[in-house]
Amino acid sequence: MTTGTLALIGGGEWTDGCDFDAGLLAASGSTTVLVVPTAAAFERPDHLVARARDHFAALGATVEVLDVMRRRDAMSTELAERASTASFIYLSSGSPMHLRSVVLGTPVWDAIVSGWRAGAVLAASGESASALSTHMVDPRGGAFTVGLDLLDRLTVIPRWSTWSEDKWHRTVRLARPGMAVVGIDERTALVFDDRGWTVSGAGSVSVHLDGRRVDLGDLPPLDLT
Questions:
Q1: For the chain, does the N or the C end have fewer beta carbons within 10 angstroms?
Q2: Could you list the residue range(s) of the whole structural domain that residue 206 is in?
Q3: Is the pTM here over 0.90, yes or no?
Q4: Helix count (H) and strand count (E) of the chain?
């Protein structure tokens, strides 16, 4: 494996049922989690951070915050350096559009990606998980828009159980050939590591490929070129 562990979480991060976080901590080899609340910039990020601190304290870990709320923050070489040296980076849920507009093409995002490729654990919850895709699902209508271009062969629908049948059918229908549409329930993680893809947590994961429901084992491998 040429990257660190990747965890795509359906939302509801740092709450009861997120037992996968203990395994992610172990995979990171660290007791410090760098929380990036960018997507929640307009949704009381201080509350999310407080919840993260309590959650990880119970696991024997501490939380540091990468305070990137605006694009000029993401251009900071100092903040990029902090991201590049973190062993466990956790992107909170919130607005995928805001996350994309703030970090795409910036030193901070480049540092996060480089850190993960060098072996750091990268976790993204809710809308941040969807934003990692090249073809990001637009939560307003289920069509596609531009994402952060980390995951080219799959796209994520977070909070899967809350989506209407009409909306997810539209997303599956509009997906380009060969791209998996992955619906992830809240408090559930789809994890990629040296074992391949696994699911952990309170809910389930649904995978559609080329218009049909498939097994987890049919998920395409990450394109790491």
A1: C
A2: 6-212
A3: yes
A4: 8, 13
